[in-house]
Amino acid sequence: MGIAPQGREFGLTRGKVFPADQAKSLLNPLRRLVQSPGRTVAAMGLASHARVLEVGSGPGFFSPAIARALPRGQLVLVDLQAEMLVAARARLGHAMNVSLAQADACALPVGTGQLDAVLLATMLGEVPDRDQCIEEVRRVLRPGGLLTIAETRRDSDFIPLTSLRNLLDRHEFSFVDRRGMAWQYVARFQRPNRLSTAR
User: Is 50 exposed, middle or buried (0-12, 13-18, 19+ CB in 10 A)?
Assistant: First the structure.
């Protein structure tokens, strides 16, 4: 189906980047029955003035709900594929508190310590270097900032919570809480309060 940046392949199987030409399937209304944007955003516990990054936003399944939760805040969407961002912008309409950037999850176009919260929803399993991705998230979050990760076994790249916690532990994130069940959950982790990002 093509080659993504840094040699990453597009496709629907495990470890491949979900292709933009299949984006409509990600917006299927039935998805809300198993992975509700409203419940996911509620689990994030966002302040109305928060600065939030959604990494791997795709066509914006969660994005409108996040933007509505931030009447005095800011939402930045990042995706590897420009076509996904075009679809997300269309869903967001004229929302003034949203900006978009095409970038890799391992090289986020955000300054150090600039964000209050980050969402990774059903995308981390597509990233070849998960450690680098989490280290980048750690870098852009302010001390004490929150990372929310949503996973579902309906996704071929599903990451079990035990594996996820081991990954986040390596980067000194503290587990905060989990909503949902073993096969479908929303988990929150807190960045260390230290100012230094040195590893």
Answer: buried
